[in-house]
Specification:
With 126 residues, the protein is an all-beta fold. The chain contains no helices and eleven strands. The strands form three sheets. A four-stranded antiparallel β-sheet has the order 4-11-9-6, with no helix packed on it. It starts with a strand and ends with a strand.
């Protein structure tokens, strides 16, 4: 069996793990996992924990993976329910990200041109 090394990132921490391919008969044996943190590339984004909305805030999240083409609001701006907050390009289509409720933009967590995954927080409203 061949053992291969992989680097994986969980939130903002990188781990180096070793994995080996197993056949059906050897899959019955327990496997010991001992991930070791390793330095990884620094991210310009804050850690995911820093992006969790605090009490009273409502997070607007990415409905699908894509790239932020435009940010139409600023921090402190009052917005109305249904107002277009951002444009997200996904699969060569422009998708409008709208406010789920009226409120004030408290924090914008992405930049124009940034790639996002499904569920990534984009901004918060209070």
């Amino acid at each position: 069996m061949t053992v291969r090394k992989f680097r994986i990132r969980i939130e903002d921490q990188w781990f180096e793990v070793e994995a080996e391919e197993v056949s059906d008969e050897s899959s019955q044996q327990p496997t010991r996992v001992d991930p070791r943190p390793v330095p990884g590339p620094s991210s310009p984004n804050p850690p995911l924990a820093a992006m969790v909305p605090s009490k009273g805030e409502v997070a607007i999240t990415a409905p699908l993976p894509g790239t932020i083409l435009a940010i139409n609001v600023r921090v402190g701006e009052r917005v109305l329910r249904g107002q277009v907050l951002m444009i997200l390009e996904a699969m060569k289509m422009e998708n409008e990200i709208t406010a789920h409720q009226s409120g004030e933009v408290h924090q914008i967590m992405v930049d124009k041109g940034q790639s996002v995954a499904t569920g990534d927080p984009l901004l918060t409203l209070v």
